[in-house]
Amino acid sequence: MHRLAFSTRARLHDRAKVKWLRRLGLWTGGSVLLAGAFVGLTNWTVLASAGGHIYLSTNLIPEEPVAIVLGSSPYLDGHKNPFFERRMD
Question: Distance between CA 74 and CA 53 in Å, rounded?
Fold first, then answer.
């Protein structure tokens, strides 16, 4: 009689484990899909709003009186930075 109770209890435990794993898989899959949709929507929004402002060649950039140069400093260790100078030309 104890053996039957143990067997039934083990099956119930296995069913609970399967149910828990199924829920975990659904939550994980749903989270991955939601994150992917968020990244895709964000990327699309940035590309759509930047339309007409992305240039594949520096020759296509219209001339403006002011520019922002990212990733460079005019002076490096108190001396002129040649990389910055070349970017300004």
Answer: 26
